[in-house]
Amino acid sequence: MTIPARLVEVLRSAKAVAVLTGAGISAESGVPTFRDAQTGLWAKYQPTELATPEAFRRDPQLVWDWYDWRRKTIAKVRPNAGHLALTRMERQLTTQGAQFTLITQNVDSLHQLAATHNVVELHGNLYRVKCFAEDRPIEFWEAGEVTPPRCPECGGPLRPAVVWFGEALPSDAFNHALQAAAQCEVFFSIGTSSIVEPAASLPRLALEYEAVVVEINPEETPLTASAAYILRGRAGEILPELVKEVWG
Ligand code: APR
Predict the structure, then answer these.
(1) Which of 12, 13, 183, 212 is the most exposed place for a label (fewest CB within 10 A)?
(2) Which of 182, 201, 190, 2 is nearest to 99 (CA)?
(3) Ligand 1 atom showing the smallest separation from residue 35 Cα
């Protein structure tokens, strides 16, 4: 794929770059995406039966077991060339004195494992837990005989510290993401279907502030029509090429 020359130039002189990633960037690591009809998690389960506070109230063990299964699946996978290229992008931009913010909807820790530093987790993290009743973050927990494990403070069930359907995003993370989207000159939307709000509003905000919006995705999304550059294909192939083209 040829990386547009103008985009290369803009990145070389950029002072602030923001990146939003979704399940698609982890697909090449072997993590199933949410909306992929063939292999996605949605094919086997109804997420609305699993990823909601109502589901947890109805059947805490089922929901806990599902997350346990996802943790085990994800524990076996490694960051791919796409994650690693973003780490290199962060290093290059930091060296040229620019701000780099990686906003992710993923809960799999693969960006952190790839050693990207400035990662903003919009939807929480699969490995953290909190008290269901009181929202208290719990630092140490282990899987015991009782599932879900119990809150050491109130004895109620613990839940994964991820954002479920119908829940608000962690406000610090979302504010940080809004600020990065408003301040950047280039905004990348990578491997996300751009349909889940409010994450999908971030590139729109960047557009309002006249950022160059770049989409990397093998498929069209609702963002495609307004992106300045559309790089069609897999993140694990396009990102290393792009980083090489810009920074050598
Ligand atoms: N490279 C880049 N993009 C890819 C790749 C790839 N190798 N493979 C798939 N994609 C794209 C798909 O075309 C799709 O547009 O990744 C996107 C994945 O979309 P979703 O599964 O909807 O994931 P995402 O956008 O992250 O979902 C958002 O929804 O279920 C909730 O909280 C969950 O964070 C999740 C949110």
Answers:
(1) 13
(2) 182
(3) 21
pLDDT per residue of the chain (248 residues) written in tens, 0 to 9: 899 999 999 999 999 999 999 999 999 999 877 766 445 555 666 777 788 999 999 999 989 988 888 898 899 999 999 999 999 999 999 999 999 999 999 999 999 999 999 999 999 999 999 999 999 999 888 877 889 999 999 999 999 999 999 999 999 999 999 999 999 999 999 999 999 999 999 999 999 999 999 999 999 999 999 999 999 999 999 999 999 999 99
137-138: strand order across its sheet: 137-138, 124-131, 158-162
Contact of 36 with 112, CB cutoff 8 Å: no
**Which two structure tokens, joined as six digits, stand for 243?**
């980083």
Distance (Å) of CA 97 to CA 13, 85, 86, 235: 10, 18, 16, 25
Distance 22 CA to ligand 1 centre (A): 5
Mutation test residue for ligand 1: of 193, 234, 239, the one with most atoms within 8 Å of CB: 193
Ligand 1: does its nearest atom lie under 6 Å from the Cβ of 33?
yes
Other C-beta atoms closer than 10 Å to the C-beta of 76 total 9
Pair of tokens at residue 225 = 């029509």
Half-sphere exposure of 32 (CA within 13 A, CB side): 16
For residue 107, give both structure tokens: 């809960």
Prior bond of 218 cis (ω within 30°): no
Q: Report the nearest atom of ligand 1 relative to the CA of 238.
A: 1
